[in-house]
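Morning run. Coffee first, then this:
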Amino acid sequence: MNNLNRTKSMYDALADAAHRALQRTFDQVPDGQSLLQMTAEAKLADVENNGWNCSVIQPAELKAFAMGVIKGLEDLAATWHVESHPTFITAKKEVTEAIINLNDARPDSVNKLGADLTNLRNLIRHLKVELNENHPEMLRRIAADFLTAYEPARQDPSLANVYDALEAGFQNSETTGAELQQLLTTFSGSLTAFQESSNDFMNEVIASIHAQVAHFGLDTLPELVTFFQEVHLELAVATYPAEYIAISQLLEKMEPVLTDEIMKKTDLTKVRSYVTELYRSVKSAQIAGVPLSVGATETLNICENKLTATDADRDDYRDVMDLLRGVRFEG
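And here it is:
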């Protein structure tokens, strides 16, 4: 499975999950009924909520999705001929058993599974370098894969030096197999820091959406919880820049749809307080000197006028949300 195919498969799987989450969530909410009321009626008393990493509410759906993630890792392992290595087989067996046991109600079960999946993905990367010590052509293939996949992030502080070193070694015809393997080992080791910083950024994006749905009391609706648990599992195995970009793009597409449904079906007072709170947070950042995208001042002025209008309605608040979505932090 090449990088493009894996990224597309991951995106398609999450896109399907997002569609199901939105469709099922909002199909069950009649127009005019408060989502807060609907959620209160639907909450499971025994669910200990902890962000999106709460207990598994829809085990069958989440297990099916997780097995799809495992299948993607199996294909990746086969690409680099490590699928039959005893260490990989044992690790995959343990993760598969963890998926089967997702029926339990421990709040940390999804986090634990995510950590196991991360270790499995990293094991594939480690083995493909280690097992090809005496295969110079395969080492060059691995180097070419790394250089192509991480080129978009070559200026990242965690990768810049090791990327340049690997590129120089790869392009030098006198680089020996042993030297190239050492460069690959060093590069592979540096990817942990890149994964951590990328995950931190993605978790901030997810947290902003979580804050929105929590504000409206939607953070325990089964379909939404399951979708974001699935995002959590895909993030656990992400390592290429293209994978993080794909997840980010999906969330960017989903968030306006989610917001629009909330705007249509939640009581106006709740909508007003939420949109006003968002505006104030951006305005406070501007006052504090945080650099914002071009045109932000004019955009915020328009937002303020709409929010202070005595006859502001749902369309006005939806407009403000759209405007705020276009403001970017440039620092």
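The chain has two domains: 3-263, 268-325. Good start to the day.
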